[in-house]
Amino acid sequence: MLIKQPDHIASSEITPKATYMRRREFLAALVTLPTVSRMVTTSDAVTPKNAVTSYTNFYEFGSDKGDASRYGGAFKPSPWTVTVDGLCGKPGTYALEDILKPHPLEERVYRMRCVEGWSMVIPWDGFALANLLKRFQPSDKARFVEFTSVERASEMPGVRRGVLPFPYREGLRMDEAMHPLTILAAGLYGETLLTPNGAPLRLVVPWKYGFKGIKSIVRIHFVEKQPLNTWQDANPFYYGFYANVNPAVATPSYSQATERRLGEIFKRETLPFNGYAEQVASMYAGMDPKKLF
User: Fold this and answer.
1) How far apart are alpha carbons 164 and 167 in whole angstroms?
2) Domains in the chain: how many in total?
3) Cα(26)–Cα(244) distance, rounded to whole angstroms?
4) What tens digit of pLDDT does each residue of 224-240 get?
5) How far apart are CA 76 and CA 162, in angstroms?
6) DSSP string computed for 179-242
7) Contact 84, 90 (CB under 8 A)
8) What is the dihedral of CA 117, 118, 124, 127, to 10 degrees?
9) For position 88, which CATH number holds?
10) Is 83 contained in some domain?
11) Residue 69 buriedness (CB in 10 A; 0-12 / 13-18 / 19+)
12) DSSP 3-state helix, strand, coil percentages of the chain (rounded to 5)?
């Protein structure tokens, strides 16, 4: 075996310092990341990545769709912890690694619906939220689960400006949270989740409007009474708790009957429950469809 001395090694053969310094991180990723399986729930073409990562609602950075991309460089998604409390048997503060490690990632290709009449098709990398929540042993009294986003005024211009009543909060009924379509996402397009899309951990509920997909989660809270989400708090006339898609009911400012896929020109028909009615409609049997907003 030929062992080269430093003077005989060409510069092209030298590993860049930045890559060398991250070698342990890379090797750890190879060991801990599972094989990714794939669940495709639509035959529609996937929305281009650059559109999904640059056109986002992340009000902690600002109210413009490009603000999270514009100002997100200062945000630090690592290290990260999530506090779990409320009506559960195993409360505590968990490192992101402890949240992710036991759960095999899956690629879930989901239709996603935006409030302003836009929609997308996104390949998320995540795992069933139910698998995580079961670890914390929610009690029989826990009928809802509430999520809270990070609030860092030093890194998030929208927080400093008070765009919304922060910290951002969202909630699900326990049966919604335990539904197999509901996931926690840690990546998209086969890559680590980017800041504009909610790094390092966000909620994805494909049969609901996008504002239910809370980003950069720092707290999971089990409660008995229905929690008040941020948009419901800010404008209860326009936003409710359920955020389901019912095309037959118009919002206060526009019809929901059609939508435009991001990057496309022509509109398409909006499907009840965003096309997932067969899987989820039974959870809302007997409820007034007009109240599912």
Assistant:
1) 8
2) 1
3) 40
4) 999 999 999 999 999 99
5) 20
6) STT-EEEEEETTEEPPGGGTTT-EEE-TTBBGGGS--SEEEEEEESSPPPPHHHHH-TTT--S-
7) yes
8) 0
9) 3.90.420.10
10) yes
11) buried
12) 30, 25, 45
For residue 248, tell me if it sits in a domain. no
- Cβ contacts of 282 within 8 Å, gap of 6 or more: none
What are the tokens at 114? 């935006």
Q: Return the DSSP state at 67.
A: H
Regarding pTM above 0.90, the answer is: no
What whole-number distance in Å separates Cα of residue 92 and Cα of residue 24? Answer: 28
The token pair that represents 35 in the structure block: 């094989």
What does the chain come to in residues?
293
Does the residue 176 lie in any domain? yes
- Domain-located, residue 293: no
Ranges of residues in the chain whose predicted pLDDT is under 50: 1-35
What does DSSP say about strands 92-95 and 81-86: parallel, antiparallel, or unpaired?
A: antiparallel
Range of the domain at 134: 35-242
Residue given tokens 């409320």 in the structure block: 86
